[in-house]
Amino acid sequence: MGRPFYTNLTGERVTYPIQKKYHSAEFLRTIPHLRLRTPANALLARLRSQCDHHLTNYFYNQDFVRLHPPIITSSDCEGAGEVFTVDSKQPRATNSEKNAAAHINPNGFFRTSRYLTVSSQLHLEAFVHEHQKVWTLSPTFRAEKSDTPRHLSEFWMLETEIRTMRLDEVMDLAEHMIKSLVIDLQDSELGRELLSTKRTGESEVNQSQDAGAGSIQRRWHALVSQPWPRITFQEALQRLKDAVESKGIQFQYPPKQSAGLQLEHEKFLAAEMGPVFVTDYPKELKPFYMLPSVQASLAGYPEYSTVACFDLLLPEVCEVVGGSLREHRLQPLIEAMRQHDMCKGNQSFVGASENDEHSSALVDASGSLEWF
């Protein structure tokens, strides 16, 4: 049989670009209108649809309220990365524009700077005071210049907020949610199809061992077979140092507290321990709004040296979930903002006179925290 043909929009008879052989992802991206017809991409679309359906049901059954925060926002959230500017005329935001409290642009579509959202966290935090438990699954945009698979300019991110003072409760939610999703896939027809699917022409290329059905089954089993351990950052750091000293493990970046956990460190910990929560990171490594750890004083560290947060590490993929408790006391929050040079402009006291010795919290003259 000859190669298949099709007629294009101009009436020409041309060779159909997708043949019965292996095609790389790079090649398929050159024919975006046809690549979704390949078995792997079609299966991936159904897989995402089922995951979305399961997560919606999961959170509904847990009494969460699903929200739909705006995609266009005036906030860079926690300043985690470069942002895409949204305007009919304005170029991409510069650092000076991002840091301006009110950047006026009378010639643009918006009066002030607007960006594609990097996180819905601030919107969820506002809603959680009314609804107790909220979640969203929405597009997220990052303008970080990186060619690694760990940095995407556009992706969908699941975010939740719950009212609690227990970090364990937040970790329980993350663990139970992921296990619930994996169990659903294991028991579904789509999951069985995923395990049995073989790409056309797969035998013609060198496939890694992890691409096989057996590897996927082992990963699923490892995720649901036992509780996930929880260790502090200090314990994780000690494990890495012990591996260097006693096992001769060599890291490109020596483990040390000031540098945090590098990707190679996360891979080692997840490979050794399986899914693992790493908690209580040093304060200087995390955003200003995180609540100090209770364990800080109990463990003999200086007061407020660590914060109540966690990163969930999974084998192969490393960090997939991050969470924290938030600072809810006004004065420590304002002090943290001062340390990060976030209190701009004229400043005034909140809820007290200038002579009140019990209130040293300062905010900008707009009084945006008066309600607090």
Describe the 3D structure.
By secondary structure, the protein is an alpha+beta fold. It is 34% helix and 15% strand. The chain has twelve helices and 13 strands. The strands form five sheets. It has a four-stranded mixed β-sheet with strand order 8-9-10-11.
Q: What overall geometry do the principal axes of the alpha carbons give?
A: globular
Distance between the termini: 74 Å
Largest sheet: 4 strands, mixed
Low-confidence spans: pLDDT under 50, at least 5 residues? 348-366
Please state the average pLDDT score: 81
Q: Strand order across the biggest sheet?
A: 8-9-10-11
Instruction: Give the strand content.
Output: 15-25%
Helix content: 25-40%
Gyration radius over CA: 25 Å
What's this model, at a glance?
The protein has helices at about 25-30, 30-35, 40-60, 95-100, 120-130, 165-185, 190-195, 215-225, 235-245, 265-275, 295-300, 330-340, and strands at about 5, 15, 65, 70-75, 115, 135-140, 155-160, 230, 275-280, 310-315, 320-325, 345-350, 360-365. It is α+β, with helices and mostly antiparallel strands and about 375 residues long.
